[in-house]
């Protein structure tokens, strides 16, 4: 990194779009949650749900490295998918080997059933018909647990453990062999208790029955008397083991957890002695996880989220938090004296939704974008104060091969120098 880039770290990249900003295209009267994917050739693909006449369609567009829209992508620069996202446009984009990518979304049926829908496409926007049925896979989570058994008919009365309920950006990771690990918020039993789950798909989109002996595992938190839990984010480590983070409830307190499993779906007892790492703070009724990231060089883990003073249906007064763990599951002693960092960047309510490692610093985004040192202090070489903000909050975040930081919000793409 040269001195010019170091001085400019945390500022918008003038070589991208209009001084670092690209306004997003919407074909409807409003757009919903967005996701972004960085391609190996420097281009970007982004997704948004366009709402028109009470219908939501998933639109994909490709952006060149300079920020200009790529008209050669799909049909006239866009790919439209009509696959049941008409009432629940929640989705994420995920890299896949052989110049392909995955989409994970949620379909909401008339009876309230939330099924997962997956699609696989190539970088030019063509559907990969070797995946699932004509390129699409639909998963009903209860069928994974009890195939052929009717879903419990109880009415859900509990509160969600995850305020960022629409965010599914960190819930998929792909193994080197092309198998797909998916974390799902979970299923409820007849007593309205929720258990998060993880399942694995084969490269052709079928459920991998060799995973945990059934293709799926339910999250169980040893040593914790949890009434319910949810799985939110999943990340792969070099040895094939994978980490899951989420939230659980005991009484009136929601806390977050991190747990590790072996490649075959068996609980990894070498990680924190087989128990979940718990992230909580007595000053908050709710400590909700958002996503986690693994440092490639040594397997260290960063987890981020938001904490709330009160656990309400619509929580407010958010305080963002960051926790850094060793690969064995202990809190990193040098980061905030070995404890999670609960601290607002701005006086107003704020939160973290995304995180990524950058050598010996941590990038986070949500209400703002910021960079932290491994001591837990803001990195003041990043925009001179450690953080930056532009218009609205950030929905998704990627780091490109040339170390640029790209974020997507409700109305724009932004690229920052790092």
What's the gist of this structure?
The chain has 418 residues and is mainly β.
Distance from N terminus to C terminus (CA atoms, Å) equals 9 Å
* Approximate helicity band: under 10%
Question: What is the overall number of helices?
Answer: 2
Structural class: mainly beta
Q: What is the arithmetic mean of pLDDT? A: 87
User: What's the alpha carbon Rg, rounded to whole Å?
Assistant: 20 Å
Silhouette: globular
Major sheet summary line = 4 strands, antiparallel
Uncertain residue ranges: 1-7, 85-89
- Could you give the order of the helices and strands? HEEEEEEEEEHEEEEEEEEEEEEEEEEEEE
Order of adjacent strands in the largest pleated sheet: 1-28-27-26
| Percent of residues in β-strands | 35-45%
Number of DSSP strands? Answer: 28
Question: Can you walk me through this structure?
Answer:
It is a single chain. With 418 residues, this protein is mostly beta strands. It has two helices and 28 strands. The chain has helices at 3-8, 141-145, and strands at 21-23, 30-38, 44-52, 55-63, 78-81, 91-96, 100-108, 114-122, 136-139, 172-174, 180-188, 194-201, 216-218, 228-236, 242-250, 253-261, 277-279, 286-294, 301-308, 319-325, 341-342, 352-358, 361-366, 369-373, 387-388, 394-399, 405-409, 412-416. The strands form seven sheets. It has a four-stranded antiparallel sheet, with no helix packed on it. Strand 3 and strand 4 (55-63) form a beta hairpin. The model is unreliable at 1-7 and 85-89 (pLDDT under 50).
